Amino acid sequence: xxxxxxxxxxxxxxxxxxxxxxxxxxxxxxxxxxxxxxxxxxxxxxxxxxxxxxxxxxxxxxxxxxxxxxxxxxxxxxxxxxxxxxxxxxxxxxxxxxxxxxxxxxxxxxxxxxxxxxxxxxxxxxxxxxxxxxxxxxxxxxxxxxxxxxxxxxxxxxxxxxxxxxxxxxxxxxxxxxxxxxxxxxxxxxxxxxxxxxxxxxxxxxxxxxxxxxxxxxxxxxxxxxxxxxxxxxxxxxxxxxxxxxxxxxxxxxxxxxxxxxxxxxxxxxxxxxxxxxxxxxxxxxxxxxxxxxxxxxxxxxxxxxxxxxxxxxxxxxxxxxxxxxxxxxxxxxxxxxxxxxxxxxxxxxxxxxxxxxxxxxxxxxxxxxxxxxxxxxxxxxxxxxxxxxxxxxxxxxxxxxxxxxxxxxxxxx
Length: 414
Prior knowledge:
Layout: H1 2-32, H2 45-55, H3 75-84, H4 92-114, H5 122-134, H6 148-159, H7 166-180, H8 186-200, H9 203-220, H10 223-230, H11 240-247, H12 249-259, H13 261-281, H14 286-306, H15 313-316, H16 322-337, H17 341-357, H18 370-380, E1 386-391, E2 396-401, H19 402-413
Antiparallel strand pairs: 1-2
């Protein structure tokens, strides 16, 4: 018995090491996949223009909090940006890319273990984790802070199905808290956790639900978030996305206008609860519940995108469908795990083909690399107090106080 226990522990350690090495290898690949301007020599859109720009002004740990961007508080990117600006500006793209991919890597490993009860085969769970890191269909979410909240929402969904283990429970709490403070959609995933807590009498899932609802209330009750949700240019902001997903663009706007944002959100929450309860009341395993719920959320999410008005679908079809695409992949893998071994192998091969079909992308082009743009900004700082540095994609820029660039030069010279 003692020998078997020792061998089991050794195998578990090797399996854990293998999982992390696999994830780290894919994350390293994600650093190298950009064929135009490397992610280590460029900043992405809001990473520079919103988060880093805010972090370079006043107290980066205090001022940005409570300041939503398009209906989301983006707490995780705000914290990361506060850490990024502690480094010399020359290293900002490197630090952003590495920090962002580190979080994605942790999310992928968490989902790998959290999905064990729903997707038992190791190969299929490894494929799901690989898809999260490489995301071959939606490469724009890679290696940037601005889109980390989508990964956190996905991880929060899977946290509701994680096996009851101490480290997974604590990891789920961290994931839910980070997601809830970054994206209000976590409030609806909290309903899933509360229903599971009721059925399984699991205290941890009850805690997850409470955290998610608290984070959603934190978003909804903030006056500036409500202003954004009602603004013409922010149809995808905060809870407005889910209202529109159910009632359509025109109906959703009329609902918010007629009832007010908070009552409208309460109403849509009740509708969601009813839908979730209908699914949960059916007999079946966690697999069936996951498949039904993931499909429902994906369909509602997609309908919401299809009915939006005044938003370029070509732009929003990327990052905004990351979560439903990942959930539907999970549904496919659940189905594959319940079929013959031959079909499971075929599904694994199909995943490998999909992952390898779009490994290298060219989404960062048209603007100069960060090193070139930074050199030009330093020259401009001889006559200016604020440097306007272009980032990717074209049309975005970050304004950095020239004092920050001068301090970095002086530190380098010293």
